[in-house]
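[09:14] KT: can someone run the structure on this one? pasting the chain below
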Amino acid sequence: MRMFYLRLFGSPTLELDDVALTGRAVQRHRIALLTLLALAPARRMTRDKVMGYLWPERDTDSGRNLLKQATYVVRAELGENALLSEGDELQLNDRVVTTDAAEFDVAMAQLDFQRATRVYRGPFMDGFFSATPRSSRSGCRRTGGACRCLCECSGALG
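[09:31] RB: done, C-alpha cells below
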C-alpha cells in the first residue's frame, strides 16, 4: 500500500516517496480537506462540518456536490481507502496518509526535540488560505513557536 505524506509546516505539499505531487489531488480545497481531516479528533469529521469550513458561502446542495467532487478526486489519486466513509462522517485513513503535524506531536510528546526541529519547516500552511478550525490554527501557532524556540536553543547550545 502506498503511503502519502502531507506536509503542513511551511508551504503545504502532499508527497509520495519524498516527491511532491502535482495535479488535481493537490489543489487548494483538496489539500484543505485532507488537512481538516488530519487535524480532526480521530481524523474524522462530519460532511456538514467539512462543507461549513470549505464552502461556507454555498448552500447545502452545492456544498455537498463540491465535497462529493473533492472526495472523488482524492480517492482517485490517492486510492479508494484514503478517505473512509461511515454514516455522515469522513475519515482520513492513517494507513494511507500521514502528516508532519502528527509526527511533530509524537516527537514533542516523547521530548525528542531533535526530531521535532527536523519536522518543523516553517509556519503552519505558510502561504495557504486556511480552512482549518481556529483552535487547530492557534494550536499550530503555539507548536510552531515552541519549535522555533527549540531551534534557537539548540543552535545556541551547539
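[09:33] KT: thanks! The two ends are 40 Å apart (CA to CA).
[09:34] RB: yep, looked fine to me
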